Amino acid sequence: MDFLAGAYIWIKALHIISVIFWMAGMAYLPRLFVYHAEAAPGSDKAETFKVMERRLLRGIINPAMIASFVFGIAMLVANPDLLAQGWMHAKLFLILVMSVLHGFFARWRKQLERDENRHDARFYRIVNEAPPLLVIFIVLLAVAKPF
What is the DSSP letter of 141? Predict the structure, then answer.
């Protein structure tokens, strides 16, 4: 426990870095879905998007999410008083929502990979707005600590 308290600032920095990568990927992946949905199934373009989506999700988004959770939990273990604050409850709820959205993105990527897309480009354009909106509220809660 003392180690975590002593390393808190470094853990916080690593948490912020991993969140940045997670959110960058979460903002970009649905944009790839838009372009993929507009491509003809089986076309070279569609096949390229399959590779890009898989690499982005598996190589960046998933590891960054895991790192965000690991460093975030380490911060909570080092400073458990955070869990008594209302803003942290709201932030954790929004992180849960972002995680569920991440799960949907993974499902949609698999459907697109199997050429079983169930949504049009407009749907993905709308969904593309969710991660930035969630990030805005998460950051405002973490910085302003309004309640």
Answer: H
